[in-house]
Specification:
The chain is built from 20 helices and no strands. It is mainly alpha-helical. The N terminus is likely disordered.
């Protein structure tokens, strides 16, 4: 039987509290956290108004293994230092391995600090500061992408040339000062809006630090309003949701599809072999990161973490059904996307430029690369979002999180489509298990990739 923990940001204590689940059968919002009694049982009941109360069982840190954690995090640090100090001197795959960890390592550290603060009270200060650092980093990343989208490609090239000249101790004369001044003048207002937007997003994410907000949410999702870990995790999730919508709101287009971003992408395209390596490493870190955040070697053993994440060996029938559902989803969303796009055009709103998206996905446009990309995205995202977050934060918040992760590459029509597919994946996770939804998600992505590769259109 899996233990429970107040300080677990994604642990549903309903596992060991069937009586409370019977008393609280469903959530009024539909944001149902899966209350599996094992990895082999479909998810069923949820908690309602007393969800927060049901999240208060405390299993402690009985499975804390500091040696294992030190090995994992010490390895990351050592590998990072070696990679940073030995750029150009170590194999390229080693650099890619470390760079792939950068997306999840900050959150692994955040989770570790939050968990251990239960035993070491002073870590709460460190964890809170680290949370603010992560929020600031997200703000800087989002703002940078927004600025790249605002500046024309030639202006960015001029700035890069000037930067290189300055680093070498020389000077650089802009080729067209008048054009540069005009470009910067046009960019000032959007940049100011972006700065205001990311600042506001950061402040909004801190709403999760307010106990009254967590008490309200605890009526619908199984969080403990007094849990430091739940508070920390919710703040980080809100930061990504709010932050990544800023460029779309300000610029009206996803920053990764801007002319400047695509120009940079064309100049820095990895080889197909390099892209395949990165996809494998990304999946590795996504799985390891999800396991650490779920409590690996902190309050759970590896087998308990697998159960917690809803990972199990599917039956042949489940595999066939998952693939079949993916095929149906592709057909259905061809129609749904067409309807959403038509509605946006009728309202005079911008829609996602499919040609630009194809350029963005160019590194994956070979049969083998598409398979690896689909597996990496399908399994990585399902384990992190549906397996990890949905169990604690219900369906709606993780699905919004999932949709906003795509807001940097799709316009609002695409974000809405991703949100709807995310809801379906969430329901599949709820009724089956994470492996099932991951197979469906990976197959769905693979079919879409192959349709692009072979130029297949249904409508």
């Amino acid at each position: 039987m899996e233990e429970t923990d107040t300080e677990n940001p994604v642990e549903n204590t309903g596992y060991n509290n069937a009586a409370n689940q019977a008393a609280n059968p469903t959530e009024s919002t539909g944001a149902n956290a899966n209350a599996d009694t094992s990895a082999n049982t479909p998810a069923n009941a949820d908690t309602t108004g007393t969800a927060g109360a049901n999240a208060t069982a405390d299993g402690g840190l009985e499975n804390l293994n500091l040696k294992a954690l030190a090995l994992i995090f010490g390895g990351i640090i050592i590998f990072g230092v070696v990679s940073f100090m030995g750029i150009g001197k170590i194999p390229m795959w080693a650099e890619y391995f470390f760079s792939a960890s950068l997306e999840v390592a900050p959150f692994m550290i955040l989770a570790l600090g939050a968990y251990l603060s239960k035993k070491y009270e002073g870590l709460k200060i460190f964890t809170t500061i680290w949370l603010l650092v992560i929020i600031a980093g997200l703000a800087f990343y989002t703002l940078s992408l927004g600025i790249f989208a605002v500046l024309p490609p030639e202006a960015l090239s001029e700035f890069n040339a000037a930067g290189h000249a300055a680093m070498e101790g020389g000077t650089y004369t802009f080729t067209n000062n008048a054009a540069m001044e005009e470009a910067m003048k046009d960019a000032i207002v959007p940049i100011l809006y972006l700065m205001f937007g990311v600042t506001l997003a950061g402040l909004l994410s801190l709403a999760a630090q307010i106990r009254a907000v967590r008490v309200l949410l605890s009526r619908y999702i199984p969080i403990d309003p007094d849990s430091f870990v739940h508070k920390t995790a919710l703040t980080a999730i809100f930061a990504i949701i709010f932050m990544f919508c800023v460029p779309l709101l300000v610029l009206g287009e996803p920053p990764l599809l801007s002319a400047t971003a695509l120009e940079i992408l064309k100049e820095s395209l990895m080889s197909i072999q390099e892209e395949n390596i990165v996809n494998v490493f990304t999946l590795f870190w996504m799985i390891l990161g999800s396991m650490i955040v779920a409590g690996l070697y902190i309050n759970k053993t590896p087998s308990q973490v697998m159960t917690r994440l809803g990972l199990k060996m599917p039956t042949a029938k489940e595999v066939a059904l998952a693939i079949g559902i993916a095929v149906v989803l592709v057909l259905v969303f061809e129609v749904v996307d067409h309807v959403i796009g038509a509605a946006f055009q009728m309202l005079g709103l911008h829609v996602t430029d499919a040609d630009k998206v194809n350029i963005l996905f160019a590194p994956f446009m070979t049969p083998v690369a598409a398979i690896l990309a689909a597996i990496s995205a399908g399994f990585g995202e399902e384990i992190a979002v549906r397996g990890l977050l949905q169990e604690r934060f219900g369906i709606l918040i993780p699905t919004a999180f999932f949709a906003m992760l795509h807001a940097l590459q799709y316009n609002w029509d695409g974000v809405i489509s991703v949100f709807l597919t995310g809801l379906i994946f969430a329901l599949l996770r709820r009724h089956y298990h994470t492996t099932f939804s991951a197979i469906t998600h990976a197959t769905y992505d693979l079919i879409l990739f192959y349709m692009i590769i072979f130029g297949i259109t249904l409508l």
